[in-house]
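Hi all, a correction to my earlier message: I attached the wrong file for MFS transporter. Here's the right sequence:
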Amino acid sequence: MNLASFVIGCTAAGGVMQIGLTLMGDLFPTAKGRITGIYYTASGLASFSIPVVTALISKTSVVNIMWFDVAIAVVGILCSLIVLLFYRKDVVPQPNNKDIILNKPEDVQTQSNFEIKEEY
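and the right structure:
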């Protein structure tokens, strides 16, 4: 039972929702409450609407359900790539060589020899 719980926790959206919510919070830091509400509302709507849509599609052919799943996967991959491109540029700063200054403290040996210069 513990092994099954571990496998389900690691493979079946164990941390995917939390990672997505963290990314959304980083992209929109001034509206974290609103983003949390929108994120979990969309998740709840998808939990209801996807089975309804697949039931309607299954009346024509079960193969069409698989194509619907492929379409959802493609949309998810495209959204992930878009977020990755914008997230890397806007949120994760790339340090320049001029931002790292070599410090040589004479008195204190416990300090680091490097200091990151922060400019905002």
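Sorry for the mix-up. The chain has a mean pLDDT of 76.
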